[in-house]
Design goal:
It is built from five helices and no strands. With 136 residues, it is mainly α. α1 packs across α3. The chain is elongated and about 75 Å long. The model has no long low-confidence stretch (mean pLDDT 83).
């Protein structure tokens, strides 16, 4: 069931993000608005658009959330692999599973290390004169 939902969510999310879908939705609203005089702008006429948009919004929230969850997990896996094979610290792999306070502590350590690294490095221009090369 999860695979089927994932496939449906992907197809609907892809379709919902296309320009033709936006144009189609605009056309539905225009047709609905143009039909107002025909139905004397009745409560039922208003209820149709309100109910339709509410249902679509409700369903799209779950589809969008599913898509974002999968995208986030895929990006996290890619970043973890880059950290694992690179020169970065492997301690960062999986920090997305920590509490917000623990992630903030990691971020603070990184910022402190960056500040410390920046102040440790002396500017090269004043540290030593440049050597002349044979070309001039």
């Amino acid at each position: 069931m999860e695979k089927a939902f994932g496939r449906i969510a992907s197809v609907v999310a892809r379709a919902a993000g296309r320009p033709v879908t936006f144009i189609l939705c605009c056309a539905v609203v225009i047709v609905w608005a143009a039909s107002g005089p025909l139905f004397h702008f009745s409560d039922t006429w208003q209820l149709i658009i309100n109910t339709g948009t509410t249902i679509l919004t409700f369903l799209m929230v779950f589809l969008i959330q599913n898509t974002q969850n999968r995208d986030g997990a895929a990006i996290q896996a890619k970043l973890d692999e880059l950290i694992r094979v690179g020169r970065a610290k492997n301690a960062f792999i999986g920090i997305e599973h920590l509490s917000e306070q623990e992630v903030d502590a990691f971020r603070q350590k990184c910022e402190d290390a960056a500040r410390h690294h920046k102040t440790r490095r002396a500017p090269r221009a004043s540290a030593r004169p440049r050597r002349k090369t044979p070309a001039g």
